[in-house]
């Protein structure tokens, strides 16, 4: 007759089981703590200049520059269109260069100088580009217009600075102010009303060129 199998736990098995249980408990606690931390926003102080005025904010690290301008500083001229960097409605200038503010976190711009459509001109004293857009009917519904104007101002500065584009004839020479150059550089700003030719006319007048 076969002897009965001894199924009573031994000291080694108990230690292994206890160790595994402790490790699982520790991992679960860490996961719970991490989840709890992620559920709380991380706030950071940030300071930058917007349209010549110093601004100090305390923002969630996930706040985009677009939302900081619109929701915290109430500068609603900058528009939220696609919120994916594909339409250009949110274009502003940072240190003189145009960016899609919906794709940039506000905390990345500590100490920067930011210009929105409100900082280019006022109804009583329009920026030349704003006046040209009005003269040449460079807008229709107007939703994309703030981004179009900010981008147009920056585009002329890019050309003036000698920065080439994909359509520049000579990458080592100063690009010419032409309709071809301006259309290429403005291609990231979508106008669903289709005022593109009028926008080029407005930019050409400001640049002193003929479209």
Neighbour order of strands in the largest sheet: 2-1-5-3-4
Strands, count: 5
Average pLDDT rating: 89
Q: Might you state the CATH topology name of the largest domain?
A: DNA polymerase, domain 1
Report how far the terminal alpha carbons are from each other.
Answer: 106 Å
Name the CATH architecture of the largest domain. Answer: Orthogonal Bundle
- Helix-residue proportion: 25-40%
Number of domains: 2
Indicate the structural class. alpha+beta
Largest sheet: 5 strands, mixed
Our estimate of the beta-strand percent is: 5-15%
- For the record, the CATH class of the largest domain is Mainly Alpha
Unreliable segments of 5+ consecutive residues: none
SSE string, helices as H and strands as E: HEEHEEEHHHHH
What is the CA-based Rg, rounded?
Answer: 28 Å
Globally, the shape reads elongated
The total count of helices amounts to 7
Protein architecture, described:
This protein is α+β, with helices and mostly antiparallel strands. The protein folds into 2 domains: 41-118, Roll (Ubiquitin-like (UB roll)); 121-211, Orthogonal Bundle (DNA polymerase, domain 1). Helices cover 39% and strands 13% of the residues. The chain has helices at 11-38, 65-72, 117-120, 128-135, 145-160, 179-185, 196-207; strands spanning 43-50, 53-60, 91-94, 97-100, 113-115. Strands 2-1-5-3-4 form a 5-stranded mixed beta sheet, with helices on both faces. α4 (128-135) packs across α7 (196-207). The protein starts with 10 loop residues before the first helix and ends with a helix. The model has no long low-confidence stretch (mean pLDDT 89).
